[in-house]
Design a protein that fits this description.
The structure holds two protein chains of two kinds.
Chain A: E1 6-17, E2 20-31, E3 35-40, H1 46-53, E4 61-66, E5 69-70, H2 76-84, E6 86-89, H3 101-112, H4 117-130, H5 146-157, E7 164-168, H6 176-193, E8 196-200, H7 204-210, E9 213-218, E10 223-228, H8 230-236, H9 240-254
Parallel strand pairs in A: 3-8, 3-9, 6-7, 7-8
Antiparallel strand pairs in A: 1-2, 1-4, 4-5, 9-10
Helix pairs in contact in A: 3-4, 3-5, 4-5, 8-9
Chain B: E1 2-8, E2 14-22, H1 27-40, E3 46-56, H2 58-68, E4 76-79, H3 83-89, H4 94-99, H5 110-144, H6 151-161, H7 166-190, H8 197-235, H9 238-244, H10 249-286, H11 291-301, H12 304-330, H13 336-368
Parallel strand pairs in B: 2-3, 3-4
Antiparallel strand pairs in B: 1-2
Helix pairs in contact in B: 1-2, 5-10, 6-10, 7-8, 7-10, 8-10, 8-11, 8-12, 8-13, 10-12, 12-13
The chains are: A alpha/beta, B alpha/beta.
Chain lengths: 255, 370
């Protein structure tokens, strides 16, 4: 298991919307180069926590440090600089509908670099090839399948080679084969490029396949109930809810 | 079909015997009768016999559950259920169903209603102020860094906002000129003053109606389109994606639309003015006023200031409508109806703003003697 220094630090964060906290005192570290999975039942605040981490929701209390810098406090060039270091894949892909896949990937390259257009074009093609979509570069997002859109969204998120990628439910709504392919892609990117992944999911199969560490959220205790290696949690967690979460679905899978 | 037979047994039980198919079509006919049979004898234990019920759907089960969980002094027993029905029936926890009825949504007290409304208006105003601030900074940035503007988007939006609007603007303005001229020419003719229709038409179209009609069409076509486009992007998290890419949605989505509207609306207004006057001229032909006479009279009645009075307004209108359309788009909530709501709100707020600002212009021009 690759471990490194802390790259993201969440300190005593209260998670929620409009000042209404659904989780409190959330603290954890994401280490450089690992695949870190945020886990929890429906409505446990996983996606909301992710929104805080990528700066879409202002924190109600506490703070999130990305490579030592607080996104919520930053503005202007500093904010752009922090955001340059992260890539986000949204649940629906959130590709820009009026642009082709290639234009989607090129956008941040055009905005952030002074590379000549042929270079940008080539980089975009390479990113799309990395996710196996190079022959679709001229297609609009509406012309390709949902799984392809998610992969294209990963390519777009990687355009500037950020050291951290956030993925919101990468396998939701995908068939098992596509979902396994996506897991393999995540593993490959982590190994070859040393990318740190923060992934929100509740797909147990892919958690066992890719996660180095997980944290588990529970809305009843309004906080983190478990943290660590998913297999260890399944086998020896002292929390009944955690064991149940891992085993129940694990047994359902075996059946 | 389902039947219900009510009888009283010698040992003091009331017997409700159901037979046939208890489903959504047959249950309504016996629902009330079954409950009346229960209510008539509140002290008597009731046995509900369903041995002859062939099958049951959700409505049938609901009837049995409702009878069994009825709050009354003596117990209600459902007996002799077929296994297939029993499996469905026993899924439900009677005590749980009884207590867990949804409380009716009460009306809010008037004070709270007023408070909430005030709060939401305040929030809307705050959002507008914030938006105007970031919009101003984005537009200033666009001015000082013209290369940062996404001109490809600007031209695309110009085409849709401007060129594609020509037919409808032409139609409305032409009819406006035609009808306005006709309606005023008829009474004027009685005084032999129909030539002054040219004065009336020239002043009202150039100063007021040309810019206003164009702006209203812009609100309906482009304001709504801006809100819907940006709203859909908000719902699809595309706006979030822009934000986390470090690209300001205002600079990215709003600036091109405002620039396009500012470029196109004055041109459309000019076009609308001309077409409306042409419509008026055509009407006056039928009142035997030749074109030359009409335009000579027009030339003597209006001057360049009148034209500019309307033309300047069109810039302001364009800015307001485009900005409010984009703001409503960015404010889009979640859900399928949210985008529609945003488009509606864009048109309504746009037209309200138009009326207010047009009033301010009227007062200002009067005071300035323009």
């Amino acid at each position: 298991m690759p471990t490194g220094d802390s790259i993201i630090r969440v300190e005593d964060l209260a998670v929620g919307y409009d000042g209404q906290a659904i989780l409190e005192h959330v603290s954890f570290d994401v280490r450089a180069g690992e695949v870190f999975v945020i886990l929890g039942g429906s409505g446990s605040g996983k996606s909301t926590l992710l929104k805080h981490m990528i700066g879409l929701n202002p924190p109600i209390a506490g703070r999130v440090l990305i490579e030592g810098r607080d996104l919520a406090q930053a503005s202007g060039d500093e904010r752009r600089d922090i955001l340059k270091g992260i890539g986000v894949m949204y649940q629906s892909g959130a590709l820009f509908g009026s642009m082709t896949l290639s234009e989607n990937v090129r956008l941040s390259l055009e905005e952030y670099t002074l590379l000549p257009p042929p270079a940008i074009d080539l980089i975009a093609r390479m990113k799309l090839e990395l996710v196996g979509l190079d022959q679709f570069s001229g297609h609009l997002p509406s012309e390709i399948s949902g799984g392809m859109q998610k992969r294209a969204a990963i390519a777009r998120a990687m355009a500037l080679d950020p050291p951290i990628l956030f993925l919101d439910e990468p396998s939701a709504g995908l068939d098992p084969i596509t979902s396994a392919e996506l897991d393999a892609l995540i593993r490959r990117l982590q190994r070859s490029l040393g990318v740190t992944f923060v992934i929100v999911t509740h797909e147990l199969a892919s958690i066992y396949a890719i996660a180095d560490r997980v944290i588990m959220l529970d809305k009843r205790t309004r906080g983190v109930v478990a943290e660590g290696d998913p297999r260890k949690l399944r086998d020896d967690s002292d929390n009944a809810y955690v064991r149940q979460f891992f085993r129940r679905e694990a047994t359902a899978e075996a059946a | 079909m389902a039947t219900l037979a009510v009888s009283d047994t010698p040992d003091g039980h009331r017997l409700l015997a159901f037979a046939g198919r208890l489903d959504a079509t047959s249950v309504p006919a016996i629902w009330d009768r079954a409950h009346r049979a229960l209510a008539e004898m509140p002290g008597r234990p009731v046995t509900v016999d369903v041995a002859d019920v062939d099958s049951c759907d959700g409505a049938g089960i609901a009837l049995l559950v409702d009878l069994a969980s009825h709050p009354r002094a003596a117990p209600v027993d459902v007996v002799r259920m077929r296994p297939a029905i029993a499996t469905i029936y026993h899924q439900f926890d009677l005590t749980h169903l009884e207590h867990d009825l949804d409380p009716p949504a009460g009306r809010l007290p008037i004070v709270e209603e007023v408070g909430r409304a005030t709060y939401s208006i305040g929030r809307d105003l705050a959002a507008m102020v914030t938006f105007v601030g970031s919009l101003t900074s984005a537009l200033l940035y666009a001015f000082t860094h013209p290369r940062s503007v996404r001109w490809r988007d600007v031209w695309r939006i110009c085409e849709r906002t401007g060129a594609d609007a020509l037919p409808i603007v032409a139609l409305i303005s032409f009819l406006l000129g035609l009808i306005l001229a006709f309606q005023s020419a008829v009474p004027m003719k009685r005084f032999g003053a129909e030539i002054f229709v040219a004065d009336l038409l020239g002043l009202s179209v150039l100063r007021e109606l040309g810019p206003l009609m164009t702006a209203i069409l812009l609100a309906g076509r482009s304001g709504a389109a801006f809100a819907a486009e940006i709203g859909t992007m908000t719902v699809n998290q595309e706006v979030d994606a822009l934000t986390t890419m470090g690209l300001d949605p205002v600079r990215f989505l709003v600036t091109p639309r405002i620039i396009a509207a500012l470029l196109m609306t004055p041109l459309l207004t000019l076009f609308a003015d001309l077409v409306a006057l042409a419509g008026g001229a055509l009407t006056m032909q039928t009142f035997s006023i030749p074109l030359v006479t009409f335009f000579k009279e027009l030339d003597s009645a209006v001057d360049f200031t009148d034209f500019m009075a309307g033309f300047v307004k069109s810039f302001v209108f364009a800015f307001l409508i485009a900005a409010v359309g984009c703001l409503r788009g960015l404010q889009t909530g979640a859900g399928a109806s949210a985008v529609g709501d945003s488009a509606t709100r864009a048109v309504v707020s746009g037209i309200i703003l138009l009326v207010i600002v047009d009033g301010i212009f009227a007062v200002a021009y009067f005071v300035l003697d323009i």
